């Protein structure tokens, strides 16, 4: 049976193990899972991005705040400086130069753009750039808000463009109070701070940093082009973090691109998609392998069932055959038994003729003796009558022995093997065979057989073999002068009986196929004697064969039979 056909899945079977609805459900699930994966990873990446941005913003804010605090401290400290105050009170050249030098030194230390001192009229009397080409000294700054506001409120802050430098900066101012605690200030101390360094630092980072004033104008930015431009709303792809700048009305905003979060989410989703595809492919392979295994197991089961069925059928057929053979064998046995009987009856036919002749003679003698006895009775010679009667008794005994043998031979064998005395079997066979017509001239040489020598056989059947052999020899010797049958007996583990004659020997065509049923050279023969004799010998555990024929030396048959203990 070709069960490979069940193993290799064709399209139909693939459809069977992976239905379309399953594929659709798996695809839908995959899309849902990937969508959820994108959402979750995008949100997490955005949160990370925002947290990082807030960290950056805090660091920038601290840097800005520290600059502001430091510069504010400079104005406060200088506003209280004795040298400054003296220069305002006594604005001679020496005092002013001294202050200018001091301011110049301080500017370098505090990293401010310029520090200068205004008198109560707003005119710069000393400045850190006093010795430079473009000096503030002598310039009137009374129009500046940081001056008027400081004169009024002690402190002021203003982000503006420098009138001389034209550079944007934060102006921090503080009024110089008189020694006596009077109400009107002596002047105003001003520090201009420029944030170029900070802005350069910010520009190094990817995220954009803007500081917007109360008017919504960008005053500081990592991108200088944006300065003094109104702040605009961030676009969708931006992540922003904002905070107020302490001590000012400014707001710092750090704006970064949200793309990294998008890319991270896309990468994660892609990886998950790849993993899911891999899983699906592996799952598909596993399903396919499982399906193959199941198909193979089913095929094997079918194969085994078919095999079992075939074996059962064959067993049934064999049983039928055995039964038929038994019937045939029984029939054969029956036929063989019938053949044995037929052979025996044939032999009996021949024997009977001899026996009739043998019986007739004593019968005639008995009649003669009886008639003689009657005559003697009338003479009163009773002793002669008694002799006659005893002769009659002997005669009848002889007749009855012959008829007994005949009856015994004629009866059917029982088929039971036993220990049969060989001498008894020979006696019976000789009694039956030595009385045929034309056999009187045959001399039979029989060795003395010990009465305790027994063979495994059945009496009637053993006699049948011996009768067949002796009769065949006698018939062959019909024309032979000085006819002789010689019997030899050798007893070992087997008993070998050889029956030889000095007749013409086996005819050539018969010798070639001896022991073949119905093979006979005699007009009235049946051709069964030797076949049946051989069968009987085999049944007894022995054999019967013809000795190799020697021309002009008669025939010789060898009968081997197991010796009975
Ligand atoms: P049947 O005696 O009826 O022919 P048998 O089977 O006894 O059948 O013998 C078969 C043949 O074998 C005989 O016809 C005869 O030709 C041959 N045969 C048997 N015994 C002898 C013998 N002693 N000498 C010569 N021929 C024999």
Describe this structure in words.
A hairpin with a 5-residue loop joins strand 6 and strand 7. Helix 8 packs antiparallel against helix 9 and helix 10 packs across helix 11. The N terminus is likely disordered. This protein is an alpha+beta fold. The longest helix is centred in the middle third of the chain and has 121 residues. The protein folds into 2 domains: 287 residues, 2-Layer Sandwich (Beta-Lactamase), CATH 3.30.450; 147 residues, Histidine kinase-like ATPase, C-terminal domain (Heat Shock Protein 90). It starts with a helix and ends with a strand. Helix content is 55%, strand content 17%. Strands 10, 11, 12, 13, 14, 15 and 16 form a 7-stranded mixed beta sheet that branches. A 5-stranded antiparallel beta sheet has the order 2-1-5-4-3, with helices on both faces. Adenosine-5'-diphosphate binds next to helix 11 and helix 13. It is a multi-pass membrane protein.
Question: What are the defining features of this structure?
Answer:
565 residues, five-stranded antiparallel sheet, single chain, disordered N terminus, alpha+beta, Heat Shock Protein 90, seven-stranded mixed sheet, Beta-Lactamase, binds adenosine-5'-diphosphate, phosphorelay sensor kinase activity
């Amino acid at each position: 049976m070709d069960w490979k056909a069940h193993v290799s899945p064709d399209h139909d079977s693939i459809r069977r193990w992976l239905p379309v609805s399953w594929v659709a459900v798996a695809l839908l699930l995959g899309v849902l899972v990937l969508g959820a994966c994108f959402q979750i990873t995008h949100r997490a990446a955005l949160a990370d991005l925002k947290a990082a941005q807030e960290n950056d913003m805090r660091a920038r804010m601290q840097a800005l705040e520290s600059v502001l605090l430091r510069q504010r401290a400079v104005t406060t400290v200088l506003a209280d400086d004795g040298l400054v105050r003296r220069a305002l009170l006594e604005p001679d050249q020496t005092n002013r130069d001294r202050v200018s030098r001091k301011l110049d030194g301080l500017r370098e230390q505090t990293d401010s753009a310029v520090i200068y001192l205004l008198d109560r009229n707003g005119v710069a009397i000393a400045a850190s750039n006093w010795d430079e080409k473009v000096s503030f000294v002598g310039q009137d700054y009374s129009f500046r808000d940081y001056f008027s506001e400081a004169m009024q409120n002690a402190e002021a802050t203003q982000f503006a463009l420098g009138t001389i430098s034209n550079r944007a900066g934060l102006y921090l101012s503080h009024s110089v109070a008189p020694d006596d605690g009077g109400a009107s200030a002596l002047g105003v101390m001003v520090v201009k701070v420029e944030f170029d360094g900070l802005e350069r630092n910010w520009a190094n980072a990817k995220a954009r940093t803007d500081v917007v004033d109360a008017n919504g104008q960008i005053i500081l930015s990592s991108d200088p082009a944006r300065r003094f431009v109104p702040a605009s709303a961030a676009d969708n792809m931006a992540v922003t973090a904002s905070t107020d700048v302490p001590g000012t009305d400014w707001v710092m905003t750090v704006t970064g691109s949200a793309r990294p979060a998008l890319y991270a989410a896309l990468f994660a989703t892609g990886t998950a998609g790849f993993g899911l595809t891999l899983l699906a492919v592996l799952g598909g392979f596993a399903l396919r392998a499982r399906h193959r295994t199941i198909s193979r197991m089913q095929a094997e089961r079918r194969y085994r069932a078919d095999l079992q069925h075939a074996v059962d059928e064959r067993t049934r057929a064999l049983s039928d055959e055995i039964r038929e053979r038994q019937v045939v064998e029984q029939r054969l046995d029956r036929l063989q038994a019938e053949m044995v009987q037929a052979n025996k009856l044939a032999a009996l036919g021949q024997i009977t003729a001899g026996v009739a002749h043998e019986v007739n003679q004593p019968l005639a003698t008995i009649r003669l003796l009886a008639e003689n006895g009657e005559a003697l009775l009338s003479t009163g010679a009773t002793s002669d009558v008694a002799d006659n009667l005893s002769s009659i008794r002997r005669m009848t005994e002889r007749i009855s022995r012959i008829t007994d043998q005949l009856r015994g031979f004629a009866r059917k064998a029982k088929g039971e093997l036993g220990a049969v005395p060989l001498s008894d079997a020979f006696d019976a066979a000789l009694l039956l065979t030595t009385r045929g017509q034309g056999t009187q001239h045959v001399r039979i040489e029989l060795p003395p057989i010990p009465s305790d020598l027994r063979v495994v056989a059945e009496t009637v059947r053993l006699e049948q073999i011996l009768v067949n052999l002796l009769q065949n020899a006698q018939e062959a010797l019909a024309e032979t002068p000085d006819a002789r049958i010689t019997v030899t007996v050798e007893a070992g583990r087997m008993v070998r009986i050889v029956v030889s004659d000095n007749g013409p020997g086996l005819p050539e065509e018969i010798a070639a196929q001896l022991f073949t049923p119905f093979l006979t050279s005699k007009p009235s023969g049946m051709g069964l004697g030797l076949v049946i004799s051989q069968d009987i010998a085999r049944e007894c555990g022995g054999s019967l064969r013809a000795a190799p024929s020697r021309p002009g030396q008669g025939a010789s048959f060898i009968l081997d039979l197991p010796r009975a203990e």
